[in-house]
Amino acid sequence: MRKKLALALVLILVAGGAAAWWFDLPAHFVWTHKQDDHLTLYGNVDIRQVRLGFRVGGRIAEMLVDEGDTVKTGTLLAHLDARPYEDSVRGAEAQKASLRATLDKLVAGPRPDEIAEARAANTEQTANLLNAQQTYEREAQLRPTGSISQSVLDQATMTRDAALARKASTGDALDLMNEGTRAEDLAAARANLQVAEASLLTAKTSLDDTELRAPDDGVVLSRVREPGAILSPTDDVLVLSLNKPVVVRAYISESDLGRVHPGMTLDVASDTLPNRVYRGTVGFISPVAEFTPKSVETPDLRTDLVYRLRIIIENADLGLRQGMPVTVRVPLGEHGGNSS
Prior knowledge:
The protein is an alpha+beta fold. It folds into three domains: 29-48 and 244-331, Beta Barrel (Elongation Factor Tu (Ef-tu), domain 3), CATH 2.40.30.170; 52-81 and 208-239, CATH 2.40.50.100; 88-205, no CATH class. Helices cover 40% and strands 27% of the residues. The chain has helices spanning 2-24, 83-108, 112-142, 150-179, 183-208, and strands at residues 32-34, 38-52, 58-63, 70-71, 76-80, 211-213, 218-223, 230-231, 238-253, 265-270, 277-285, 290-291, 305-313, 325-331. A six-stranded antiparallel β-barrel has the order 2-9-13-11-10-14. A four-stranded antiparallel beta sheet has the order 6-5-3-8, with no helix packed on it. Strand 1 and strand 2 form a beta hairpin. Helix 2 (83-108) runs antiparallel to helix 5 (183-208) and helix 3 (112-142) packs antiparallel against helix 4 (150-179). The protein is rod-shaped, with a radius of gyration of 44 Å.
């Protein structure tokens, strides 16, 4: 009799353990459970986070948000001391203005009074050359008679040659004035101006980058730096949790893979609010099989291969938080695989 009672007790304990495993462990370990009208999957909420920083280095002048603050797209979160970058912009603007003036001067060419001055200089040197030439010719006629020495003739020759050189120089200068600026000089001036304009745009971009703004709606998770800190462009300043998209990472076995497809709508519920049903859409099914993650499987299933699902929650709210375990219901039946 005692043996029968002991056997009955063992059977009760085994049955109770099996029931506890079936109804309790799936929420924590088993990654899939099938019933007649639906397939149940288990996964976790995956909310994207962004580590924010400045594209330029400098000293933090002010932090405008704190951990837990809700921000909208474009909200100013922090800014650096902008004085060095403002100085760079002013310097680039001055350089651009200088090169613009140089180009305008070359395009306009010589002024009329400059051309008149060059013409007067050439006329003067023409007269000097004529006078030097006459003096040379007179001295050359007197030298054979012995009236002048050879040194006097040599001096007249050098004076004539110098006048001839000055006349050629002023003539060339006048020709250049009349021709205007060379095309090569204009091209070089335009290129220098373009370089200055690009430098100015770069300086303005760097100045704009001294302000850190929210790339999307979200909640500030971490405030990594404080005012006064010196940063390099690779340093993190804030960590932002984005409001959208909110996705669920779940896994499905190969045998059930044909029951889901991208675009299919599913119901998702959390353990915290089991009566709050979220509408999800299958956005991605991994083409590569992987071993069942240890966080969602039993020791007996650690060698099973599964496929990862990415389910996008359409009506997400603050009830879904990063890493939260959720239950996914996949409808079965004749129309279970069709999107609604």
